[in-house]
# Entry
Amino acid sequence: MDTRTLQTLQSQGLLDEKQQEFLTRVYDKSLFSLFYELKTLLYFSILLFTTGIGIWVYKNIDTIGHQAIITALSIVMGSCFWYATKHKSPYSPLEVKSPGMLYEYILLLGSLVFATLVGYVQYQYGIFGSRWELSTLIPAIVFLFIAYSYDHRGILALGIAGLASTLGLTISPIQMVREGFFSAKPLILSQLIFGVSICAISLFLDYKNIKKHFTFTLLNLGSQIAFISCLFALFQLDQEAVYFLLLMILSTIGITYALKRKSFLFLLNSSLYGYIGLSYLVIKNMKDPYSIFCYLIVSGGVIITFVFKYKKALAHS
Amino acid sequence: MILFNKKWIENQSIVEEAKRWHISEIISKDQYESIKTCYATPFYTPTLLIRILLFIFTYITLSGVGGILLISLQNSGNSTLASTGIILGMLLLVLLEYIITHRKLYKSGFEEACLYMALWGIIGGFLGLYFDTAVSSEIIPWMIPLPFLIWGVVRFADPLTTAATYVCFFAILFFFLKQKEVTIPLPFILMTFSALAYFGAHRLKRYECAKPYRGCLSIIEALDLFTFYAASNYFVVSKTNILLIDFFAQEGNIFWVWLFYVLTFLIPLTYIILGLIRRDSLLLRMGLFTSALSALTFRYYFHLLPPEVILTLSGAFLFVIAACITRLLNVERKGFTSQNILREKSKGANVEGWLIGSTLHTTLPNQAKPFESGGGKFGGGGTGGNW
# Structure
């Protein structure tokens, strides 16, 4: 933005002098933020580090070096949690403002190292016996505890991912789509129940006013899992009518919730997945390509018309 | 020139910036509402997600129309199909100009979908007619789209069309040099082109008349920085040498090998330093991105340490550097800060949380199945995939 525009805004009384001076510093770059660059570096450094140690620990399991690695990782984990606990604000069911970007990423690093260490301890010492799933379940539960205690959305998502992993499921949409075509009925249905359960729990916690700002993350994860699983149930399994009805119910609930809470993401998701399911059935039952293209024109046109007709209502939302 | 009302575009951008100021708690809600009222425009510009929705369904609708035409003309010749595509594309462009003017659409998703479909029809049609001829050239297929893409840029200031235009220019230069069997100077000519285009775009941004096109000029700058680096990256030069010049050449058999090794590392560093000196986010980010590419290039040719050691050490090193700088710049120093001064319009915290969960969980060992000792193999079902 031009600094002259800021002067114009001030002369019109829309900005006060202090605000105009501050924004001038921002736009003429005399005050320059490295926030996004540093955040990206922190994220990728954690990705590299945790990927590396995940492999390094197990490659050196039978060597003398692995004791040193484990000691080092324990020190890293301890330091991270010490730092995070030192800077942590008291628990509140409301949103707690983060002390800063560094705090969030140090806590994230500590949590990921913890999960790696739990996995190692199970592998090396078999503390959970043959119950291997406990080595993902325990970290998942700890992640959820940390997420609520320290108010961290990323660790919340990791906790959900850990729970999914314990059940042999995935939260990655790409992974779900890739594996969906080869999945057996129990896995698809487990995923569907898991997704719906996450959504239900998140709505319950939202109703109880417990960390309402987590609702978006939980609902987003849960709804993605539920919708994709429902679609694959429709594509792969028998009783199409049942899964189509379920998909329409989920879409309707999603759209209603989206309009009520003014969330365009859920509106987009719910309408898109519902449209894909409806289109699948329509196209499958139409033999004539001409009819299929006519369906695409009519259905697309209806949605475009709806958006333009109700654009004011959507804009005010 | 641009189809949209320039004053409205300027006013819209003021309102968008005011929204960022409000989200960043620099101005109050009342101030934001006042600015919004004072600089209101008749434009219809929906939120990003409605824009995506409109884009997808406009594309679906137009694809349906395209599909019906294809079925109707399936027994006609290629030239009939191509001509129909051209005529319909042009009609769509005319219709689009009318709709935009009367409906006052701006970045709605609808006009982008129509524009891309129209250009696809026109360019596809002309390319179809060209391929039907006996003329064989590597340059002409890149020249054919140019006038229409330039029209798309000038009339609509569309970012994707801008990128496609740049790619066409770059490809024309590349294949022209290839045709003339210019080998040794090839990377340097491409670098010169990128540098000149960068400085040209940077200079143009200062002019008042280029205001509506600043987004497009930024795209050109970004592509210039990338192609400048790519033309000097050792991996790219080496592979291109093999592909274009000597299919049987060994890697490393290129002129002035040492120069390209040096440039592969020097250019990202230069971008970062210049980005910090000039306080240019684009230069800085491109510097970070190309540094990662240089690291991968180095790793491709030199295997000093096992991959897990490299990953761990580089991750630790980067984390320490980033953490130290973040802590140091918690308070403003020499005009630099690590605080988030101007937050983005979208709900970043939610998106970030979801991204972290979707990506970082893949780095965790999945313990569903026992591991083999020594080899450190990961087993387990379900979460082995990447985002």
The beta strands of chain B are 336-337. The mean pLDDT of chain B is 85. The longest helix of chain B spans residues 78-103. The CA atoms of residues 1 and 151 of chain B lie 9 Å apart.
